[in-house]
Amino acid sequence: MRKSFGYIRVSTAKQGEGVSLEAQKEAIEAYAVKNNIKIVHWFEEKETAAKKGRPIFNQMIRDLKRGKAEGLVIHKIDRSARNFADWARINELADAGYYIEFATESLDFRSRGGRLTADIQAVIAADYIRNLREECIKGMNGRLKQGLYPFKAPLGYRDNGGGQPKSLDPVRGPLVKKMYELYASGNYSLWSLVPAMNRLGLTNERGKPLAKTGIEKILKNPFYTGIIKIKSSGKIYSGVHQPLISVALFDAVQDVRAGRDNKKATKHRHTYRGLFRCGACSGAMIAERQRGHIYYRCHDKTCPTKTIREERIEDEIATILKRCDLSEDAVAKLREKFEALFNERETDPITDQAQLELAKLDDRFNRLTDKLIEDIIDNETFQKKKQEILLARKRWQEQQCQSSDLSTRLQNLDKFLEHVKSLYASYVLASSDRKREILVFLTSNRTVENRNVYIEPQKWLFALETMLTISGGEPCSTTSRTNQQNMSTEKLFEELCKIRAEALQTATHMICR
């Protein structure tokens, strides 16, 4: 009785759950009984034969060469190999005197005719796989051009079957969005984000906590904005799935990643770290703890600015925010003025601008495509620029949605005014991290010179003050070292529309979440 190995294979683990492996095994056992063969060991593999270097197949070849069996019984030729490299190894075994037999195909592998027939069938199997691969690629490219992602859904989305866009995961989706928000705040490195997300309960598809590499992969994937990027080819497509985050949030995360990819967990989380510069030498004011107090120090020894305590900075911030608080009467007048301006125009300037910018982006994309066709740029450059254009389109489309109709504009206005009417109270009640966010949202050009703190309010605060002045009410004083800007009514209207387009979501997120 001849001793042989039995080799059975399916292309995927999913196929292995069915009857294919058992059916192959039964056919080989029947063949073995009929031909007086003893199967001394079974080798079972769940991997495509089109790919060389299969681990179980390689182990079987090694064991044969070590003399653990006299031959090999396989269900069919296409179960053994569908690539020429592995088929050549099977031929080498036959040349070395090992018995190579196929349970369902009457081939005498030791004869010239049998080997020729087997070689022809192996070539046909390889060609079948090659054609199948091409058809699969063609189908996937067709899906991608339709905006559909034909692969496994990224974390935060769900698969809905072939031909359907991915949908948001109601459990993991909000947590992935929260991850983006935390990292964009600048208060977390990739290392410190790992335990933070573990505490919030974000896990991968296997239910295990995310590692740093998994978080990094999510944070750089534009899929969450509605853009599909294929890593293997670098190609970019516009997806039809619902975006999880805004382009502005994605851009903020990329800006933070550019300078903080390898930073370890933050040890000292001082409230205003990195937000103030020296007014004399423009150097950074570095936060230090000394004798129970936080000091911000200019490290240029020749600079007249030395140190300033954190309490002094907070006093100056509070002074500015107290001046910026709006009374109920001021809020009502602002809303009345806004509504009158909205009624005078059918659309926001931001809507008109969005339409113009979208048309420009379409023209830019057409010119970019012409350059690719004419070989002026390579495909890598084309895909990179294409991603920039698609993200820019998403950005303007988001702003269009915020300025769609009068009722939506008024709702957004009410929300905005509600959030900014009590800036001082919002700041005082906020946590240390939230105070940082509020300060960035409300101010610019934050400097320390000698022992004086200079903080300029953002230009939209000037716009609100001017709006109140035009409305005939008492203006709120947001004056600093910078002179107050004078604006025409039309210019003011455009500026305040930009407030809602650019600052409304930020105000909602930073001040009152």
Account of the protein in words:
With 513 residues, this protein is of the alpha/beta class. The chain folds into 3 domains: 131 residues, Rossmann fold, CATH 3.40.50; 96 residues, Putative Large Serine Recombinase, Chain B, Domain 2 (Hect, E3 ligase catalytic domain fold, Alpha-Beta Complex); 151 residues, no CATH class. Helices cover 54% and strands 13% of the residues. The protein has 19 helices and 14 strands. The chain has a 4-stranded parallel β-sheet with strand order 2-1-3-4, sandwiched between helices. The chain has a 3-stranded mixed β-sheet with strand order 9-13-14. β7 and β8 form a beta hairpin. α7 packs antiparallel against α8 and α7 crosses α10. It is elongated. The C terminus is likely disordered.
Keywords:
Rossmann fold, three-stranded mixed β-sheet, 513 residues, 19 helices, 13% strand, alpha/beta, Hect, E3 ligase catalytic domain fold, 3 domains, disordered C terminus, 54% helix
Helix/strand layout:
Elements: E1 2-10, H1 13-16, H2 20-34, E2 37-46, H3 55-65, E3 71-74, H4 77-80, H5 84-95, E4 99-102, H6 112-145, E5 157-158, E6 167-168, H7 172-184, H8 190-200, H9 212-219, E7 227-229, E8 236-238, H10 247-260, E9 277-278, E10 285-290, E11 293-298, E12 307-309, H11 310-324, H12 328-344, H13 349-373, H14 379-402, H15 406-420, H16 423-429, H17 432-442, E13 443-449, E14 452-457, H18 459-471, H19 489-512
Parallel strand pairs: 1-2, 1-3, 3-4, 9-13
Antiparallel strand pairs: 5-6, 7-8, 10-11, 11-12, 13-14
